[in-house]
Amino acid sequence: MQTMKLNSGNDLPVVGFGLWQVKNEQECKEAVRLALETGYRHFDTAQIYGNEAYLGEALKVAGTPREELFITTKIWNENQPSARLSASFDQSLKNLQTDYVDLLLLHFPVTGTRQQAWHELEKIAKAGRAKAIGVSNYTVRHLEELLADCEIKPAVNQVELHVYLQQPELVEFCKQHDIVIEAYSPLAHGYGLDNPVLAELGQKYGKSPAQIMLRWCIDLGTVPLPKSVHEDRIKSNIDLFDFQLTDEDMASLAKLDKNHRTCWDPTEVA
């Protein structure tokens, strides 16, 4: 698996395995088992997903050396206040059966608590319980606020990103500040998979439209986090490293941007 270097110094696998909405215990554990067998080492969960413990147990049963894994979780909104954040993270570590995570994120830019919550994450990072810290669903405005009052710069901003929601201003801002963008919902929940541009590029490279969308994320310099519990899709979602999109391909795909969101919109959060 290819990796990229975070500003924290640790290596981030360039494709992750998303676990959002995977709520069934057996389904989650089986998906993680298949993902490990297929070559995934980067797993993305969150407190609110309700499956940290399933992931922790599946990784324990698999026996993959901890140093080969990259585990991310996220602090949920109600746990951002200082009185709750540390204890909630202790529970996350217990659920995951590990004494550290590779990446810890604030899940949303919650008005009134996000800045103090970031300082709590800085304490966790200094204690070595998170190798890197970052944010999720932050806009440029939220990042500017954070960068003006932080000791440790965020390593990652995880946002909805796909060919139909390209967010060029945010991508460029993060690039300038050495913040890696992770793309959740990189397949737009199936929206637009029948687009003729994707079909044409798929035919060119012998790939599916979904694989073109995921490779677009990688060639943009971002990290896609596809989610599936189906074995064939788990395998195809990581089969992305035997081709690369050209500048002409990327220009064609840039025209697909519609600012189309399939998830939550943080742009109006004060």
> How do the strands line up in the largest sheet?
3-4-5-6-7-8-9-10
| Contiguous runs where pLDDT drops below 50 for at least 5 residues | none
Cα-to-Cα separation, first versus last residue: 38 Å
CATH level-4 homologous superfamily:
NADP-dependent oxidoreductase domain
At the first level of CATH, the class is: Alpha Beta
Strand content: 5-15%
List its traits.
TIM Barrel, about 270 residues, eight-stranded parallel beta sheet, 10 helices, two-stranded antiparallel ribbon
Describe the overall structure.
- The protein is an alpha/beta fold and 270 residues long.
- It has one domain (3-254): Alpha-Beta Barrel (TIM Barrel), CATH 3.20.20.
- It contains ten helices and ten strands.
- It has helices at 25-38, 52-62, 82-96, 114-126, 140-147, 168-176, 196-205, 209-219, 231-236, 247-254; strands spanning 3-5, 11-13, 17-18, 42-44, 70-75, 103-106, 133-136, 156-160, 180-184, 223-225.
- Strands 3-4-5-6-7-8-9-10 form an eight-stranded parallel sheet. A two-stranded antiparallel ribbon has the order 1-2.
- Helix 4 links the parallel strand 6 and strand 7.
- Helix 1 (25-38) crosses helix 2 (52-62), helix 2 packs parallel to helix 3 (82-96) and helix 7 (196-205) packs across helix 8.
- The radius of gyration is 18 Å and the shape is globular.
What would you say about this model in short?
The chain is α/β, with parallel strands linked by helices and 270 residues long. It has 10 helices and 10 strands. It has a single domain (3-254), classed as NADP-dependent oxidoreductase domain (TIM Barrel, Alpha-Beta Barrel), CATH 3.20.20.
